[in-house]
Amino acid sequence: MLALTLPVEAHFKLLSPAPWIAEEDDFGDPQWSYPCGGTLTDPGKPTGAVTKLEGGEKLHLRIQEMAFHPGFYRVALAVNSRSELPPDPEPISKTGPDGRQRSISGAIQYPPAPPILADGLFMHTVPLDKIQEAEIEMPNINCTKCTLQVIEFMASHVRNPDGDYTYHHCADLQIRANPDKPIDTRFPAENKQH
Q: Which residues contact 56 (CB under 8 A, 6 or more apart)?
């Protein structure tokens, strides 16, 4: 009975593209703090990994859920600064019998609009028992070092002081626009001074 009352933490690993900070354990931690992981006291250790791709092509996203909570994933892109990333999904929560806030659900943007590239991915109420993969269409833009954010919103989860009801991973990207396609003006132009 005691095991049923302890909070279960959901964690995931970003397998591809390469994460911007080193995962320090088998669960993919640290991944609590908005916008890109780490914790409030430790932002994590940068890997220096940068994934290069051409604008307008599809990015192959691979994640592995390491511990279960019902929920979904979202992917967003910041061109110049991580401040361009959207806030975490707005939760609906309630106070449980133990007096702690628990999430019930989170808002999904449909259809997704920049900076969100995909929302409501890998929606699940039972454990994801294998690596999850998706092809994410990238905008045709130029950016020397932009940030791809992948988050997991968890339902039926107690509030975490480092990240509320969401876990966070990011990857640094370098995108070179395809000259044969129009530039995607829904995203800001690259600021060369960052």
A: 137, 138, 139, 140, 177, 178, 181, 184
